[in-house]
UniProtKB/TrEMBL annotation:
Keywords: Membrane, Transmembrane, Transmembrane helix. This is Uncharacterized protein. The chain crosses the membrane at residues 7-29.
Length: 118
């Protein structure tokens, strides 16, 4: 009787070990899937920010003129235009800086990291 119980215990241990292995495989697949979803979400957020920034810069002829002049010849702007141009330019710089830092810290996949070259 004791031998039968030992055999059942051994079978139970083997089944438990297999269940743990299967669970770990399942968790690994879930993490991989979640990573891809997170990367897709990050890519979408970066693209949305790019679009928003570009639309903001081109929202009016005046804003477009100010940012272009600010980049090329900021002294040609009035004080008010210079301040406006500075804020538009600072938004651009912050966006590129954010992409750079995320890429440097390996928070972006290689495909997403190439966005800074746009």
């Amino acid at each position: 009787m004791k031998e039968i119980l030992e055999e059942y215990a051994l079978i139970a241990e083997i089944i438990s070990a297999l269940a743990v292995i299967i669970s770990l495989i399942f968790v690994g697949l879930q993490i991989r899937s979640n990573t891809k979803a997170t990367q897709a979400s990050t890519f979408h957020e970066i693209a949305a920010l790019d679009i928003h920034l570009l639309l903001s810069l081109g929202s009016s002829k005046e804003s477009s003129r100010i940012i272009s002049t600010f980049r090329m010849n900021p002294d040609a702007l009035t004080e008010e235009e210079h301040n406006h141009g500075f804020h538009l330019f600072a938004a651009e710089v912050r966006h590129v800086e954010n992409l750079f830092l995320q890429n440097e810290n390996k928070m972006l996949s290689k495909k997403i990291g190439n966005l800074e070259n746009h």
